[in-house]
Write a structure and sequence with these properties.
337 residues, alpha/beta, Rossmann fold, 2 domains, 5-stranded parallel beta sheet, 4-stranded parallel beta sheet, globular, binds phosphoric acid mono(formamide)ester
Length: 337
Amino acid sequence: MPSDGPPTHLIRLADLGPDRVRDVLDLAARLKGRPGRGELAGKTAGMLFFRGSLRTRASFEAAVNQLGGQTLNLTAMSDFWDLEERDGSVMDGRAPEHVKDAAAVLSRYVDLLAIRPAQQGLSWDVDRQDREIQAWSRHATVPVINMESAQRHPLQGLADLMTMREQLGKLDGKRLAVTWVHSPEPATVGVVHSLLHAALQEGMEVRVAHPPGYELDGGVIAEVEELAQDTGGSLSTGLALEDAVEGAQIVYARSWQSLEDYGNKTLGASHRSRLTDWKIDEKLMELGDDAKLMHAMPIRRNVEVSDAILDGPRSLVYQQAENRLHSQKALLLTLLR
Ligand code: CP
């Protein structure tokens, strides 16, 4: 169903801008705790997964269904095939179809496309460009939502911001510790990049702890530092765990892969094996200011975060996961009504 004007995409939070993000979260707060009223009756959301998901898939599908809409759910390699995203390419390789054609066709079947693209995992210089999700947004004629690319996870960013607002009220000047934690299988860095954007657009004091070699993407850091200049927020990176958590109201744990070792799994695993003491426990949390724990999940219990914290009063992780549902409902209403 091609639209009349260019659609609004959500590839990164900056696509909505701070005011619209706040409007979406105000609406999400109103929607929380009330069933949908069929606002999306007659609308279909297409969902394409090139990688696995539990929360994003389930919460997005539940959000559409609760608002009276329908989902069309497709998984790469079982429901369809490799897609080429480079414009002008000679397609004599693996991919039998171009995103340009798939996006044009699917735009005639659905009202919105929500996509979790593949991550090649070979070169950060390549993956950091988010070429696949960018290609979908160029070629689709309906809104495209990024359900987690290499660089960004804007849906998680919305739920994270909603959760921090619920917990702390006004966020400017509040202290957020983002802590790298050890995991045998590190996750994408996109969650942290979107979290930094969300927190700094609200003027938070953000302190990031990570070991040497786990620096965040330089382009994203430059972008969010510019944002912080406008909002009065601040960002420090490369801190020790204790220094980041000292005085923090929120401690956000995430294991992300080293962008230096990116593409070299053996080297990455070898470096991480020396970092098993990077984890969250009660002793660390006590350094904060009545600190609460957030985590995008999935969590490796007693590797990333202790059971005592996850199962105790400091944990916001289920509230945070629930807020995926409410914030996505608000986003859907914003983009589709
Ligand atoms: N937080 C998050 O995106 O979870 P999933 O990978 O399970 O979707």
